[in-house]
Design a protein that fits this description.
With 166 residues, the chain is an alpha+beta fold. The chain contains 6 helices and 5 strands; from the N terminus they run ββαββαβαααα. It has 2 domains: 75 residues, Gyrase A, domain 2 (2-Layer Sandwich); 71 residues, no CATH class. Helix content is 52%, strand content 15%. It has a 5-stranded mixed β-sheet, covered by helices on one side.
């Protein structure tokens, strides 16, 4: 019976496959790494015996081909979930991320989209305060959102997987 495998995380051009039942089996992971390296010319084909994982990375990565090869060669059985529609947040985040990268490139790394939103909302809040607008919510709402965007951008920079998803 083939060992079951699951995807630990998946990013564009990169996937980590977990084979928990073979954790610690050095011979198995040596064979796995050799067989996959011989068959696929990927930039990264790396196993980790201690956690029972396989890391594959390449712009031409084809997870289905790897899964088929592994099954046919008695390496592991990776069940791939059918591709579903992308969530709305993912559909919106792609173009926004593109705008942020373009803005970052244009400004030489000085500002990205979260930074621009932060500065804009902070400015709106300060202008409202200068105008004496203390009774309506926009000034403190703008300040609140500006710090929220700023905080989120700091967290995302420290954890890039949170931006790209699994």
């Amino acid at each position: 019976m083939l060992p079951e495998a699951r995807i630990g995380h998946r990013l564009p051009h990169r996937v980590r496959v977990r084979i928990d039942s073979r954790r610690g089996d050095e011979r198995y992971f040596e064979r796995l790494e050799k067989d996959l390296s011989d068959r696929f010319n990927y930039e990264t084909v790396q196993t980790c015996v201690t956690i029972g994982s396989l890391l594959l990375a390449d712009p031409a990565l084809d997870v289905e081909a790897v899964s088929d090869f592994a099954r046919q060669n008695d390496l592991f059985d990776l069940r791939l979930a059918p591709a579903g529609a992308a969530p709305v947040a993912v559909s919106v985040a792609g173009p926004i991320g593109s705008v942020s990268r373009t803005l970052n490139r244009i400004t030489g790394g000085a500002i990205d989209l979260p930074g621009l939103v932060f500065l804009s909302l902070l400015s709106f809040g300060i202008v409202d305060l200068i105008r004496g607008n203390f009774r309506t919510p926009p000034w403190y709402t703008a300040l609140w959102y500006s710090f929220g965007v700023f905080s989120k951008s700091i967290i995302d920079r420290k954890n890039p997987e949170a931006i790209n998803g699994p």
